[in-house]
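User: Hey, quick favor. My workstation is busy. Could you predict this chain's structure for me?
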Amino acid sequence: MPHQTSRTALLAATVLALSSALLLTLVAVEWGPLVALDDDIARTTHRWAVRERGLTQVFRVLTDWVWDPVTMRLLCAAVALWLVWRTAAWWTALWLVLTCAVAAVVQQAVKAGVGRPRPVWPDPVDSARYAAFPSGHVMTATVVCGLLLWLIHRHGVRGARWYSVITVAVVSVVGVGVTRVWLGVHWFSDVLGGWLFGASLVAGAVLVHERHRGLRE
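Assistant: No problem, here it is.
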């Protein structure tokens, strides 16, 4: 089973990394069709955001407090502490924290390298700092939720509880992407980049964990 998981993780990491590199290239060269798609989506969602002020405020609370990168990293740290306290799983706890740290470094490095401007509106409903690509909120949520999902499944959670956890994770990862575009602080491709970069890091982290486990066995 560890070998099968390693092969699956390697394949997923390769496909996702190549997809991330392709999207990064298209964003960097400002590929026309992608720019047009981003612009169409941004203009449409911004009109909705300006019109639906109540929903916009809900999305601001969700993106600033529930799905904020700080909240996600605190959740990751809490799980790492629980792993050490309840199961003495020092390696897994360290692996979890280091993966989140690597994700933060990769995210900032790509942002600095691409330097993509965020959308600009005459009537903004929210604001954000730093470069746009990839979305840090989305990438952090993808990494944390992906790692925790894998750990929960690995610890034998099945049935209704497993489906409940999947639902929460999917709603969080998709939902944070929706809020970032709706609030006008990211282009859709920034969100897509956050999903792809985040998922590729999760797959790579699982590969590292399984290979370390194989060496110990």
